[in-house]
Amino acid sequence: xxxxxxxxxxxxxxxxxxxxxxxxxxxxxxxxxxxxxxxxxxxxxxxxxxxxxxxxxxxxxxxxxxxxxxxxxxxxxxxxxxxxxxxxxxxxxxxxxxxxxxxxxxxxxxxxxxxxxxxxxxxxxxxxxxxxxxxx
Length: 136
What we know:
Elements: E1 9-13, H1 17-30, E2 34-38, H2 44-50, E3 56-60, H3 68-77, E4 85-90, H4 95-104, E5 108-111, H5 119-127, E6 133-134
Parallel strand pairs: 1-2, 1-3, 3-4, 4-5, 5-6
Helix pairs in contact: 1-5
């Protein structure tokens, strides 16, 4: 069970370009070769459908046009993505938001700012099927 980082296709839904660059660098360090980017939750389902396969979606919560919860709902409603790993990545690490993410159907939670020392391990564990709920 699980996928190796070098074989993974990861979609990063993030409106802040600097955050996206950091995520991309950390994923590249981990060995991820296929990393896609969408800057908003709007049309993320349509974009995801154009990709041959997605192993993991890293989803910011606060996005322009359509937030991460709305985008998650539309992805989960689609047969192809109902079981895709989708992990929330957000600066709102309040207990309420972590619980809301859990109840909404996210598969994990990574708090921002990302910890460059911990992020590669978090992604590796997620790709192996572990539940990572680490707001801090």
